[in-house]
Amino acid sequence: MANVALARVYQQSFESHPYTTLAFTNGALNALGDVVAQFTQRVVEDTPEEHRRQRKYDVPRTLRFFAFGFGMGPLIGRWNFFLERHFPLRPLGGANPGKVSLRALARRVGADQLFMAPIGLALFIGSMGAMEGRSPKHIEERYKDLYKPALIANWQVWPLAQLINFRYMPLPYRVPFQSTCGVFWTLYLSLLNAKEDEIQDRKEAMERMVK
Predict the structure, then answer these.
(1) What sign does the dihedral 127-131-136-140 (CA atoms) show?
(2) What is the rounded distance in angstroms from the CA atom of residue 145 to the CA atom of residue 139?
């Protein structure tokens, strides 16, 4: 009953304020992914136990993930509207009107992965670097280090998730479904980003010592 009530509240919110609803939903789930990532880091980190205990929870980091998700939610929503209009899954005429075309579904997933996936990843790396106060040089280094492996990992995971999303999820629930699956993707990106942070922090410390 609670799930039904929550879905009803979400549906009503989406119908009255679609982009605000998507922004908060995506931001909250993105933040959840970073929460999971930070606790996971404590478990899997290859450091002495006392160092792991001393590591404090990084609240600003989670807020950065919330801010990124908040900004991306409406953008992904607009993208889904675009796909719905320009990549329809059900042909209007023909022998099976109303039946989902697998070819059309493949085209929609392909468009999503070839256009939105690279753009979203580029926005993630750039915005995280900017919110952390990194210099343009450091952000450029992040693109060189992170973009290609993260994009390849994306193409190994997201096509299947998006195929299920586009095929079975009603339009209002596509961003929440994607964000829910994205909790695990955010876990991956958060760990990847944190590792790059440590590398860049060590480089900066060494540069200051040399100077």
Answers:
(1) negative
(2) 10
- Angle (CA) 163 168 173, round 5°: 100
Give the whole-number percent of the chain exceeding pLDDT 70. 83
User: By the 8 A CB rule, do 189 and 150 touch?
Assistant: yes
CA–CA distance, 116 with 123 (Å, rounded to integer): 10
> pTM higher than 0.70 for the full model?
yes
Residues 6 or more apart whose CB falls under 8 angstroms from that of 103 comprise: none
CB 26 within 8 A of CB 175: yes
Nearest to 154 by CA among 197, 114, 107: 114
Can you tell me the distance from the alpha carbon of 44 to that of 139, in angstroms, rounded to the nearest whole number? 27
Tens of pLDDT along 105-124? 999 999 999 999 999 999 99
| Cβ 112 vs Cβ 82: under 8 Å | no
The answer to whether 14 touches 52, Cβ cutoff 8 Å, is no
Task: Kindly state the DSSP code that residue 101 receives in the 8-state scheme.
Answer: P
Three-state DSSP at 17 gives coil
